[in-house]
Design brief:
This protein has 491 residues and is an alpha/beta fold. It has a single domain, classed as Glycosidases (TIM Barrel). 39% of the residues lie in helices and 13% in strands. It contains 17 helices and 16 strands. Strands 1-3-4-5-7-9-13-14 form an 8-stranded parallel barrel, surrounded by 4 helices. Helix 9 crosses helix 13, helix 14 packs parallel to helix 15 and helix 15 packs parallel to helix 16. It is globular. Belongs to the glycosyl hydrolase 1 family. Keywords: Glycosidase, Hydrolase.
Length: 491
């Protein structure tokens, strides 16, 4: 047996990737709705380019606008997840559904009604909601008028939105995550902050300033949320993963250290209430100029988070000299290929022990309860007469959950729960393709949005159900031969 009864076993999705119906019932457009199905999705958007990803083309597919129709299918989807045995479900609220332009005084009642109905469905099955208030989404109007989070004015609009939502759903939601993967504003600035660059502009300072505005909005949301209800709990959320040195050369080890300092900066501020000394030195060294007032510092210092949540898909690897070394995709950025990790069916390298290392690292650093709110493998699945055999996903879940349990049982890490990412198939952030599937529930839909939309249980669904039923004990049992064969081919 693994955890006490209040451990969260569940899954996670985002509004931008699953709801679809992007202009239904008064919703406004968001930055995520502008991401096309091509290789430009993760690249910076420049205002003064003649053509960018914001160019509307009739032949272009925008997967975020399609989603998986969760806006209409949430009842059957929640029922399917209740049969899986989950006791928690992370979803995000679309800012544009509540305030279509982002700066209205009064909310869109149809948007509030939708999330009211979704919460009622979760309550029906006694599933705890874990709610993200901004999951890579900002109303497009604020992007066009204010350049997204680059402008300080957006803080006021965001806090009005979060206050409205927290007050409206008071007592029904306890666990709040103000921003998803805040550190991604440095890697995918348009997705992470609605930021558009200009040629010749100090774009690096712009990114850090936008991040500072998000940190302030995060702290103010905590301040108001605690005033609304003292039981509310707030979490930092970062894209995490241990950064290894490519070799044991001291210069490579130092490069890995600097990479981790950058990656953990935002969560450092959310936990400790101030910028690390190395970050302030970095700003001076690189001429990064931020508008940070004494009042800003007070707000950050007095409104820190209750827990640290994070996504983990794989680890990273770096060196002092990266030229000529093989690279591989990571979560929102490129990293060196770790020669000690096996080939994976996913585009990311498979490193389950890296999760245990990351858990130890974060708990030792922050001394706060941790929460894995995203973990999973995105890969192609073969649909065969209503069955989906996915031993690679079973192996991924088995090994990562096993290392998670070892981190708690053997290393003393305090952990709130485990939420599998994209528990229902949805279009990915990095590629926009639903064919890069994460779920234990298959959605009959292709990358262009065509298909019946019908849901099917994969073999991994039954495996994860057993894991939940046994409170994790199933991961220490013998796996089916097909799953063991996957591991042999990877070794």
């Amino acid at each position: 047996m693994f955890m006490e009864k209040d451990f969260f076993w569940g899954g996670a999705v985002s509004a931008a990737q699953c709801e679809g119906n992007y202009l239904a019932d008064g919703r406004g457009a968001s930055n995520f709705d502008q991401l096309p199905l091509n290789d430009q999705r993760l690249k910076p958007v420049f205002k003064n380019k003649t053509k960018s990803i914001l160019t509307e083309e009739t032949e272009t597919i925008y997967p975020g606008r399609i989603g998986i129709d969760f806006y209409h299918t949430y009842k059957e989807d929640i029922k399917l997840l209740s049969e899986l045995g989950i006791n928690s479900f992370r979803f995000s609220i679309s800012w544009s559904r509540i305030f279509p332009k982002g700066n209205e005084k009064e909310p869109n009642q149809a948007g509030l009604a939708y999330y009211d109905a979704l919460l009622s469905e979760l309550e029906r099955y006694q599933i705890e909601p874990i709610v993200t208030l901004s999951h890579f989404e900002i109303p497009m109007y604020l992007v066009e008028v204010y350049n997204g989070w680059a402008a300080k004015e957006v803080i006021e609009y965001y806090v009005h939105y979060t206050k409205t939502v927290m007050a409206y759903f008071d007592g029904r939601i306890k666990y709040w995550i103000p921003f998803n993967e805040m550190n991604m504003v440095l890697h995918i600035p348009f997705i992470g902050g609605g930021i558009q660059f200009e040629e010749g502009q100090d774009n690096l300072s712009l990114q850090y300033q936008a991040g500072h505005h998000q940190l302030l909005a995060n702290a103010l949301t905590i301040q108001i949320g605690k005033q609304i209800n003292g039981n509310n709990q707030f979490g930092a959320m970062l894209a995490a993963g241990k950064t290894y040195a490519y070799t044991c050369r001291p210069s490579d080890v130092f490069a890995a250290l600097k990479h981790e300092q950058e990656n953990l900066m935002f969560s450092d501020v959310q936990v400790f209430g101030s910028y690390p000394a190395h970050t302030n030195h970095f700003f001076k060294k690189h001429g990064i100029k931020l508008d940070v007032t004494e009042l800003d510092q007070k707000v950050l210092r007095e409104n820190t988070v209750d827990f640290v949540s994070f996504s983990y898909y794989s680890s990273a690897c770096t060196a002092a000299e990266t030229e000529g070394k093989e690279t591989v995709a990571a979560n929102g950025f490129i990293t060196l290929r770790n020669p000690h990790l096996p080939e994976s069916k996913s585009v990311w390298q498979n490193d389950p022990i890296g999760l245990r290392i990351t858990l130890n690292q974060l708990f030792e650093r922050y001394h706060k309860p941790l929460f894995i709110v995203e973990n999973g493998i995105g890969t192609q699945d073969v649909f065969n007469k209503e069955t989906i055999d996915d031993p690679y996903r079973i192996d991924y879940l088995n090994e990562h959950i096993k290392n998670m349990i070892l981190a708690v049982r053997e290393d003393g890490v305090e952990l709130m729960g485990y939420l599998m990412w994209g528990i229902i198939d949805l279009p990915s952030v990095s590629e926009g393709r639903i064919s890069k599937r994460y779920g234990v529930v298959y959605v009959d839909q292709d990358d262009n949005g065509h298909g019946s939309g019908k849901r099917y249980k994969k073999e991994s669904y039954h495996f994860y159900k057993k894991v939940i039923e046994t409170k994790g004990a199933a991961v220490f049992e013998e796996l089916p031969d097909s799953t063991k064969d996957i591991r042999k081919r990877s070794d």
